[in-house]
Amino acid sequence: MPDVYYITPPNYGGEQSLRERFEAMFSRGWAGTGWSYVDVTDLVDREYDEAVDKEIKERIQKTYNTDEKALGDRGRTIFKYLVDKTRRIRPGDIVAVRSGESVYGIGLALSGYRHRKDMEELDIANGVDVFWFISSIPPEEPVLSRKKGDPVPKEYHGICQAGNARGSILQKLQEHLGLKNPEELSRLLGQYKDLLSHAHTLLRSPAPNLILSGPPGTGKTWTAKQLAYLLITRKFPETERDADGRWKWEKELESSEYRDRWALVQFHPAYHYEDFIRGIEVKTAEGQIAYETVDRVFAEMAQRAKENPDRAYVLILDEINRANLPAVLGELIYALEYRGSTVKTLYGGEIIVPKNLYVIGTMNTADRSAGRLDYAIRRRFVFVPMPANPMLAEPFAQPLMEAVNEWIKDHAAPDVVPEDILVGHTYFMGDRDTVARKFLYQVVPLLAEYAVDGLLNVKQAPQKGVPLRLEIKKKEESPEVHEFFLRGMQLYRPSGEQKGTPVTVEDVVNTLLS
């Protein structure tokens, strides 16, 4: 069950100043409060005793030239829940940002205490990174109004635990996410921790462009679509299917309500600027030929995002490195970084890339036939690695995945980074029959292709019937994982070195299907 905290920003400066603070927090993924020119990063995880309280008060007095009487207990009010090792806000806690007696935002803390210099001028530099699920900027309708029994902070700004209001805040978030109880909320927040981190990286970036990079089978495109769903709907992609077997969240994302707010484009060597940004179409009318400038997917999406600045729009560029990017992007190499700037396009007209258009690319690190990203393009994107993770494979298939990837590491060519060519966990997901067929018809041909391309240092490409020496290592802490492999063939034979029996691909497949 997550802890719930109130964060109240300063309210001096009038309505416009307060609005600017809320806008900055919601747009930059942040919840912060005052005494902004005091940084207490070095005091984090200390017990908030008299010595720490005294140190913070002295720093405030020195910085602001404030006497002891004027300071009061504000040092403790502001910093107690940012510093104290037992009470401070931590990743996974719920944060509600408020003004007066009303809550205007509810989100998930993605970090512990940070001091942000870019927030000092607004006096909200001390706080935590937050992924906002619900937000409303004052003086608009609050997300949640104070109910009888809810505590109101004594100070005009500060941080405190939500106390009696905890239930109301969690209930509001549950309703927004379509969940039944706090336990379900807690489970979901833990399940999507990495996805939230990726989303937060996008929301925090000055230029919200991100590339998910990793070897084949690590779910890059799948994750990109889940990110699109999360950013657009502010809801989690629940693991439920419809009667036809399709994911409910995926169908919702493709519904008429959201369909014009995202797009997926598959990049390839024949893809051009005219296919992506803007081109010319030849049309005939009454026997006359006319040349008409036509917006393509990027220009259309940028315009829609510009017209609806309070909504998130997402463009997924699948296999981004397979196209000739400098030629495809053209002047967007500039526009993707300098959001909001006007750029003239090759075929006339202008284009503005707004901040609420999120660009997510996927890149297969094993594909050497694809073009490399030049440095000018690379620095416009934040790169998030998506490694092969055996913990996401089916329990019965984890030893096989680990064995295959250990074999790849042992046989990787000297000029290859082994992690770039590992076999991802999606190949080892499904029932036994599915995993067996994926292994035989996808994994083995992939390894053969690696060998032909010189990524593996082997004399002969692994094929059916050719020994692919795998060693299934026993994990004492989870012996049930090996039950499947012990059936039909003694794949594991205890020895002093605890190494498995070398087997052929045929042996593994036959065991999987038995």
Which terms would index this structure?
514 residues; globular; alpha/beta
Straight-line N-to-C gap? 43 Å
Strand content: 15-25%
SS elements, strand count: 17
Give the CA-based shape: globular
Low-confidence regions: 151-156, 472-502
User: What helical percentage do the residues reach?
Assistant: 25-40%
Could you tell me the mean pLDDT?
Answer: 81
Number of helices: 18
Radius of gyration: 27 Å
Query: Largest sheet, if any?
Result: 8 strands, mixed
Instruction: Please state the structural category.
Output: alpha/beta
Provide a descriptive summary of the structure in words.
Helix 7 (193-204) crosses helix 8 (220-233). It contains 18 helices and 17 strands. The protein is 34% helix and 18% strand. The chain has 514 residues and is of the alpha/beta class. The protein has helices at residues 14-28, 50-64, 68-71, 74-83, 166-177, 182-191, 193-204, 220-233, 248-253, 273-276, 297-307, 325-329, 332-335, 375-378, 398-411, 432-452, 483-486, 505-513; strands at 4-8, 30-33, 94-99, 102-109, 114-115, 126-135, 144-145, 158-161, 209-214, 262-266, 278-285, 288-295, 313-318, 342-344, 350-352, 357-364, 382-385. The strands form four sheets. Strands 1, 2, 3, 4, 5, 6, 7 and 8 form an eight-stranded mixed beta sheet that branches. Strands 10-13-16-9-17 form a five-stranded parallel beta sheet. A two-stranded antiparallel sheet has the order 11-12.
